[in-house]
Amino acid sequence: MKLSISHDTAYYYEDQVRASIQYLRLTPQESPRQRVLGWQLDLPRPAQVQVDPYGNILHVLTLDEPHDTIRIHASGQVDIDEACEAERYDGSPLPFLRSTHLTQADQALRQFALRNVGEQRDRAALGNLMLALREHMAYTPGSTHVESTAAEAFAGCAGVCQDHTHAFLACLRTLGIPARYVSGYLFTDDCGHVASHAWAEAWLNGAWYSFDITNRLNKPERHLKLAVGMDYLDACPVRGMRRGGGYEKMHAHVIVSPAEIQIVQQQQQ
Amino acid sequence: MSRSFYDEMYDANGECRPHYQEFARWLAETPPDILAQRRREADLLFHRAGITFTLYGDKQGTERLIPFDTIPRSIPASEWRMVEAGCIQRVKALNLFLADLYHEQRILKAGIIPPEQVLANDCYQMAMQGLDLYRDIYAHIAGVDLVRDGDGTYYVLEDNLRTPSGVSYMLEDRKMMMRLFPELFAAQRIAPINHYPNLLLETLKSASPLDNPCVVVLTPGRYNSAYFEHAFLAREMGVELVEGADMFVRDDKVYMRTTAGAVQVDVIYRRLDDGFLDPLAFSADSVLGVPGLLSAYRSGNVTLANAIGTGVADDKSVYPFVPDMIRFYLSEEPILSNVPTWQCRKPDELSHVLAHLPELVVKETQGSGGYGMLVGPAASSKEIEAFRARLKANPAAYIAQPTLSLSTCPTFVENGIAPRHIDLRPFVLSGQETRLVPGGLTRVALREGSLVVNSSQGGGTKDTWIVEDCEC
């Protein structure tokens, strides 16, 4: 499936920002599963590009002239191989056994993981865990915030894709299965969710398998991968800091569509 | 259980060892009131110089003087040469291990260290995977903690490869001794150490491929327990002392703000833990670091000393493998011994540890500074039981070692002079070559019978002498 992406992010500041710096993970990598036909990042000034610790393409944007707006536009076309279900990996998956602040399993998550997986450590068992977790955690925008931990969201029985993914990672790592966070885009027919999305990958039989907890999917047919990491903080599309600026208003606008149709979604904050 | 201690000054028959005879003669000849007066003078001078440390967990959060003892710890030069060679060998192997671990991982493939032990370790840094460092050096500055058992054998207690501290006390203790007792230094040949700041600066400069790199010392700030040392070393080296907020990153390069405008920084001697270096890459709530620093580092535009991710090599659960690292990378036998260590993550070793808690020292694999450890022979049964519960709940977080007797050195106490337990931390610098100044920091446990020498636990310091063997 050929997907066309147009992702606009804009930050508006109440006052002048004296200087700012952003880590941007907004460029998809070429892989057997996704072929990048074309990709472009429009930024206020040229950014340095490098590969980050998790192998993601990272742009570092530094602005040190006063500014009250930052506009970031990512766009391009990517061909997804729907038949490709797993991704090979040269490195060791062992570092992905570690927990982080956001993915630390508490007693409740540990018990939930054990109860729903039992002795099996295969794709079917993790599929069941995914369904049980999604059953337990409603999709409720606004119920959590960007700093909510897996344990907090799980206790609140609600969250968004980021929280679902963190809770799933916490379960897997406590079971001894390496797991990582994925951020990217999802094409949906029903416009049910925003198109900027997060899901998980689990290491099974020597490859990474996808689990989109929010959408109860374990085949990444319509998922365009941008970045991976231990948790949201490593993989999120934009992470930045600034001096000055006061109150911030963020506006994100994503269009993910099959190359021929256009479906527009909008998220405003 | 009675244990025999190795005393640095007196042998088992109570005879003064040769390298201490000159000092013993001086001590016997000097009237006690003069000694007492000099000790008061030392306290006053240390106070004025502001040589303090902050005690964590102290409600008042006050800075304290580290108690200084005027009886030096002395080591004969011939013995020191062995210790020095052993420290150099060890730090070389540890640097080779880090370079291997973050690249080919030959030692894991050879089956010498279980991969999960290091790769699933919290101190393993993904950011270092495949990153090439100039000269392949990770721990430019290392502190190797040594103790001596009952027969005088030196053992390595731990390697400190992150941000080892204490070198300022080593230097200040010497200055103090030379000021108070110049006659001692005239009477015998004591190896000088005051060139340490020069060696450190050379080491830091040689960590960068540039000819004359701009070096700074990065401190977490004045609330850090070692702030005095950060300021001291910056001043001694003649470089800027900076906090994170004094620097910024632009286009993958690091700059510091100065009154004359932005100046590019090439080498950062950072006394800030990995997790605080870059709030965009690590701990998001940290304000101590520099946003963007990791991207500049990974682009090769700035050197960090020590490198990120060295903690995986000085983790106490990795410590048992250091002798094997020496054999693997250097094809040499270790000069200095490891303390036998039980790894509580292994069920059979855990059961041994649980059965022998009153005899053992139990440490957290991630701990430092003497916080969170159990000294079995000195602990109450209540403390032992509390530790037993912690061990059972999370065995992998602990290791255990036999309680070493630790050598003693005569020390001024309330009622005259008495033996107190000591350790030794030499500081190993790795640059173009691996070297150290003679000696190191001697810490002394001032409480009678105590084996914990950490300054945070009421330890003091002594000047450390490497004495040329006399021809007499």
Automatic annotation (TrEMBL), chain A:
Domain Transglutaminase-like: 153-215
UniProt entry tagged with the keyword Cell inner membrane: no
Keyword line: Hydrolase, Protease
GO BP: proteolysis
Gene Ontology molecular functions: peptidase activity
UniProt cross-references to PANTHER family, sorted A to Z: BLR5614 PROTEIN-RELATED (PTHR33490), SLL1049 PROTEIN (PTHR33490:SF6)
Protein name listed in UniProt: Transglutaminase-like putative cysteine protease
TrEMBL record, chain B:
Gene3D superfamilies: 3.30.1490.270, 3.40.50.11290
Stretches assigned to the Circularly permuted ATP-grasp type domain: 72-445
Stored InterPro entries: ATP-dep_Glu-Cys_Ligase-2, CP_ATPgrasp_2, UCP005522
Regions annotated as coiled coil: none
Regions crossing the membrane: none
Protein name, as recorded: Putative circularly permuted ATP-grasp superfamily protein
Species assigned in the record: Azomonas macrocytogenes (Azotobacter macrocytogenes)
